[in-house]
Design a protein that fits this description.
This protein is α/β, with parallel strands linked by helices. The chain has a single domain, classed as Rossmann fold (3-Layer(aba) Sandwich), CATH 3.40.50. A 5-stranded parallel β-sheet has the order 3-2-1-4-5, with helices on both faces. Helix 3 runs antiparallel to helix 4 and helix 5 crosses helix 6.
Length: about 140
């Protein structure tokens, strides 16, 4: 099974919060882990906001960005493609998702369809997990909720 991590799950890899241990365990098991190209921008935005809020020093910011970019290369990245647009429209409309969540769910479904292997949506967003479950994906909330 491929683990698809949205940003709410992947961010736990870089900041200690509820569910960090579960994300680290999942990633340590090996196998294929995937995410959307959108996650790259979302993660860098999280880091930048934390630096601006002074939750990260300049040195800590540089370190976390380096770590993320090194680990990014190990993820299977689902690009944003024109042939995904109907699927994005369908999931956003059917499940009333915010734009980024719609892209994440569509990316996981697109991946499952094209690789023909089961995908588990890993996220901490309750609405996204509920929609993923309705879309017949296995789901995991790393925070255990």
């Amino acid at each position: 099974m491929i683990g698809y991590l949205d940003t709410s799950a992947l961010v736990k890899r870089y900041f200690e919060e509820e569910g960090t241990g579960n994300i680290n365990s999942l990633l340590a098991k090996g196998g294929i882990h995937a995410t959307s190209m959108l996650t790259y921008a979302e993660m860098l935005a999280v880091f930048a906001r934390k630096k601006k809020a002074r939750d990260l020093s300049t040195a800590e910011y540089a370190k976390v960005v380096r770590q993320f970019e090194a680990e990014w290369k190990q993820l299977h990245v689902v690009g944003l493609k024109d042939d995904m647009l109907p699927l994005i429209r369908r999931v956003v409309t059917k499940f009333h998702l915010r734009g980024a969540d719609g892209v994440h769910l569509a990316s996981a479904l697109y991946l499952e369809h094209n690789i023909r292997e089961k995908v588990m949506m890993v996220a901490s967003d309750a609405e996204l997990l509920a929609a993923a479950k309705k879309a017949k994906l296995t789901v995991m909330n790393p925070a255990g909720k």
